[in-house]
Amino acid sequence: MTTARDVMTGGAECLGAEETALDAARTMKDLEVGALPICGTDNKLKGMLTDRDIVVKVLGAGKDPASCPAGDLARGEAVTIGADDDAEEMLRTMIQHKVRRLPVSDGHDLVGMVAQADVARSLPDPKVGDLLQALSTD
User: Is the pTM of this model over 0.85?
Assistant: First the structure.
């Protein structure tokens, strides 16, 4: 049985909710990623922030990225998957919530991220096709 732990990219870094949109953009650049999980001071996942969020909600709205807290931009409660959940559950969750990136937790700890590209590399073509179709339609 393939699990989320088998598919994920490990070592996901959480950005603090009090850090700025500019900090988030720099971290995304350094890590070469398009999204970051946002954690509160309690180290618990608060939401996700994408590069698109920064462009639309900060730059597009004329806000200063150096003073805009990342926590204010995080999209709602983050949809997550357990590290030992099977690939079917992972796909169902991504499709149901129409997310391209899924934080992976082991208990309360963030242990990795499953991205659409991870799924494409790891699972059979029909499953990948189902995910791509779901994410491409409204």
Answer: no
